[in-house]
Amino acid sequence: MATKKSKKSVIDIGIGVADREEIARGLSMLLADSYSLYLMTHNFHWNVKGPMFNTLHVMFMAQYTEQWNALDLIAERIRALDFPAPGTYREFQKLSSIKEVAGVPKAVEMIRLLVAAQEATARTARSVLPIADKANDQPTLDLLTQRLDVHEKTAWMLRSMLEE
């Protein structure tokens, strides 16, 4: 019995393969930063203690839940551009601009680390904007704009907790 070789479908969405590849590469870095941020936030949710415990525990849960849901949106956009989404710790570590936190920091240090990670993720998202704009890729521009809004707002809220 002969087996048919499957044909790879041709993507014709008005964005050339080179542009799609460049956008997917940028989105892969955003996915890696987003996953690293998710993991950091969830870790801090589990391990926070001190006078701000309840406030931070609840806040971190809202943040990591939002972040978890965003991961799918980013990965699915990469797939819609016809590229594989990274999905291993090794790939994320290689692509992420956010470094893993060793040990369990104090609550205030957790907030500082999360501000830096939120800002790093925003910078990564912002770096993909001109690439998507040049390719006239509105779905990616929309996704990036939404992610920037979340990361910048979350960084501001966290920074506000650090003021005297």
UniProtKB/TrEMBL annotation:
Q: Where is the Ferritin/DPS domain?
A: 27-163
Q: Which UniProt keywords apply?
A: DNA-binding
Instruction: Report a single Gene Ontology molecular function.
Output: ferric iron binding
**Does the record bear Ribonucleoprotein in its keywords?**
no
Family annotation (PROSITE patterns):
DPS_2
Q: Name one Pfam family in it.
A: Ferritin
Q: Tell me its family.
A: Belongs to the Dps family.
Protein name per UniProt: Starvation-inducible DNA-binding protein
**Organism of this sequence:** Propionivibrio dicarboxylicus
